[in-house]
Automatic annotation (TrEMBL):
This is Beta-xylanase. It comes from Sphingomonas gei. GO terms for biological process: xylan catabolic process. Residues 1-22 form the signal peptide. It holds the Pfam family Glyco_hydro_10. Belongs to the glycosyl hydrolase 10 (cellulase F) family. Keywords: Carbohydrate metabolism, Glycosidase, Hydrolase, Polysaccharide degradation, Signal, Xylan degradation. InterPro entries: GH (IPR017853), GH10 (IPR044846), GH10_dom (IPR001000). GO terms for molecular function: endo-1,4-beta-xylanase activity.
């Protein structure tokens, strides 16, 4: 708790209610020549990484150089989602992810696996087959894929998002689980147990994550999602489900929903109290709705990014921070209808701009890493290359 009286200042530079604090934080300009974000993260026993695509590495050497300068971990943006990797029954295509994992190993980077079980991005054949399958065949459609994917990358992928986005309290289920979910419809909450137990058997050395979004803001929507995820974790852990960590995606929307350091810190403390780890797995900041002028918008984005990371990194259970992309050149925020700017200009919600230059957000993230207290758990103990 000792840093929280200070970190409360971090987002007050914004003209929108991003925090409860009142002392302004002025994000510094970035160091354009110094070591990357992962070097800053490593000082406290943590790590920084980003989501990438194999096509970016193949076609954009300057971007590849930026990844190697900034990141110590990579995760697939889409090349391990099941609609890509299993386009037909019994037919698998891991070629895109193979290229990413080969790249990681060549350069000494750690790798995460995203994602094994998700309500979205399932192939059409699977969506049609699952409701009609006999019980054993139905279970095999879930567990068989996990076994194949994890065994393929055993020893090369150290962390897996085993179950992604399981809760949605607004859909009306009393347990808070997502109702529009083929896995929940097929198995109920048991699908989470099946997935994690299978994952543990497939690769006993991998760190297993349950991940979700909408856990960050001080809004009614996020409060309901936090309550649902905490109750789900309590039930699952009581049943002995081998969940090692909660992945908090960190898709911040500061110009739509307020961020409150105390609310978020309290949530992280509850998760830590369950005896599991924490990671920020998909951080970015939607800047639509902020100032039209770039300089004040960048300052406000950086301020809320610093506030968010100061709280996250103050918790000793937080092991890593990954952004969903590294450069605005490839950000999904620039194309997604809810977040893209009407004038077609790119979103500025990632550490590097479209020209691969470090922004104020980069500087704010580096400052948060530099100020973070040291963790007792070592990177090596979590199966990550030193």
């Amino acid at each position: 708790m000792k840093r929280r009286t200070f970190i409360a200042a971090a987002a007050a530079a914004c003209s929108f209610p991003l925090a409860t604090s009142a002392v302004p934080f002025v994000p510094p300009l970035p160091d354009f020549e110094g070591p990357g974000l992962n070097a800053s993260a490593r000082r406290s026993g943590r790590r920084f990484g980003c989501a990438i695509k194999s096509s970016q590495l193949a076609k954009d050497p300057p971007f590849t150089a930026a990844v190697l300068r900034e990141a110590g971990t990579i995760v697939q943006e889409y090349e391990l989602k099941r609609h890509v990797t299993q386009p037909a029954p019994g037919r698998y295509d891991f070629s895109g992810n193979d290229r990413l994992i080969d790249f990681a190993q060549q350069h000494g980077l750690a790798a995460r696996g995203h994602t094994l079980v998700w309500y979205a991005m399932n192939p059409l054949w699977l969506q049609a087959a699952l409701p009609k399958a006999a019980p054993r065949a139905k279970e095999a459609l879930l567990t068989g894929y996990i076994e194949i994917a994890m065994r393929r990358y055993a020893g090369r992928i150290g962390e897996w998002d085993v179950v992604n986005e399981p809760v949605e309290p607004n859909e009306g289920r009393p347990d808070g689980l997502r109702a529009k979910n083929i896995w929940g419809q097929a198995f109920g909450e048991k699908y989470i147990d099946l997935a994690f137990h299978t994952a543990r058997e497939a690769d006993p050395n991998a760190r297993l994550f349950l991940t979700d979004f909408g856990l960050e803001h001080a809004s009614r929507r996020c409060a309901a999602r936090r309550a649902a995820i905490l109750k789900l974790l309590e039930r699952a852990l009581a049943r002995g489900v081998p969940i090692d960590a909660l992945g908090i995606q960190g898709h911040l929307k500061p110009f739509r929903e307020p961020f409150d350091e105390r609310v978020f810190a309290g949530f992280l403390d509850e998760v830590r109290g369950m005896g599991i780890g924490i990671a920020i797995t998909e951080m970015d900041i939607a800047d639509r709705g902020g100032p039209q002028a770039i300089e004040p918008r960048d300052a406000q984005v950086a301020a809320v990014g610093k506030a968010f990371l100061d709280v996250a990194l103050d918790n000793p259970a937080t092991s890593s921070v990954l952004t969903w992309g590294l450069s605005d050149r490839y950000s999904w925020l620039s194309t997604y209808p809810d977040y893209r700017w009407p004038d077609g200009k790119p979103s500025r919600g990632l550490p590097l701009d479209s020209d691969l230059q470090r922004k104020r957000l980069w500087a704010a993230m580096a400052a948060a890493f530099d100020a973070a207290p040291a963790r007792r758990a070592s990177i090596a103990s979590e199966g990550v290359p030193a």
